Amino acid sequence: MRSMYRRAALGACLAGALALGAGAAVADDCPNRGDLDDIFCDADGDLVADTPTDPAQWRNPSTLVFAYTPVEDPAVYANIFEDFVGYLRECTGRNVVYFNVQSNAAQIEAMRSGRLHIGGFSTGPTGFAVNLAGAVPFAVKGDAEDWQGYNLIVVVRQDSSFESLPDLKGARVAHVSPSSNSGNLAPLALFPDAGLTPGEDYEPRFSGGHDNSIMGVVSGDYDAAAVASDVFERMARRGQIDEADFRVIYRSERFPTSSFAYDSRLAPELRDRVLACFFDYTYTEEMQREFAGADRFYPVTYKEHWEVVRRVADASGAPFNRTTWEAR
Asked: How far apart are CA 41 and CA 21, in angstroms?
């Protein structure tokens, strides 16, 4: 039997989604846009795109496309989400396919262009997905008590001489990608207060993925890596790495994990059905193992739960807007 909490959370999230329909998405009639791209509108001020008021602009596809962030090998997650995709197909009454995206940029562009309808976006790219692609984050992984978060950590080899961030001056330090929260934006914002300034004390080396950064430390390609703690822990649980080979010399405050977001232009009836399906789903045992005990989609809002992420982006000089995106 589903808990009262989950029904209440679903009701709150659906109410929020319905409120999105009050705003106009036509650029000329938009009373407030904030950081959103010109094709979107935020009349209600909740920082995400409103559902268009003109039904002609709604998207009501017979096939729903779902993709999870390419934070690691996309093929791994195609298998992990196989049961969920099948469930979503039955629950929505639509064909549902899993799309293997190879980069954050490709995932964001796919939603902007209408080829992706529901996505799990990594923490940092979520802000760009909201502002440039009209994504509306509604959930993160969690359990009955709380939403699941992660920390920015800096890992070094166990046998290295590095003990703290200032020791990394002049070292080969891996970052993930320009849009990554824990893999770039958070280090730019947080490291200087700890005595290490990226771009001055060392030149970041972009690896393209958290897993690439971690494995690069093992192989000796990098002296240290700034990565998400949840990725590091998952790789250890899978046996891809041995935690004993590493030391963590820095740990930040908690950030939200990857968001699950829908395209703001989905037809309201379809959007509401998708939300209901997500919040009624219980993770498989495999998913619970993979996601550190999380067993459900926990309701969140971009305005509240991504506040710390936006603060880090602004402090790092890389706000989630088109100018930053095009300068990557």
From this structure: 11
pLDDT, position 315: 87
Q: How confident is the model at residue 26, as a pLDDT?
A: 44
Contact 300, 138 (CB under 8 A): yes
- pLDDT score at 8: 39
**Which domains, from first to last, does the chain contain?**
4-147+257-326 (3.40.190.10), 150-255 (3.40.190.10)
pTM attached to this predicted model = 0.76
Whether the pLDDT of residue 72 is over 50: the answer is: yes
Mean pLDDT of the chain: 90
108: left (phi over 0), alpha (psi -120 to 50) or beta: alpha
Residues paired with residue 151 on neighbouring β-strands, in sequence order:
254
Say yes or no to pLDDT of 276 above 90.
Answer: yes
Mean pLDDT of 24-47: 85
Cα 82 from Cα 232, distance rounded (Å)? 23
- Is pLDDT of 324 > 90? no
Per-residue pLDDT for 19 more than 50?
A: no
**259 burial type by CB count under 10 A (0-12 exposed, 13-18 middle, 19+ buried):** buried
> Distance between CA 213 and CA 223 in Å, rounded?
10
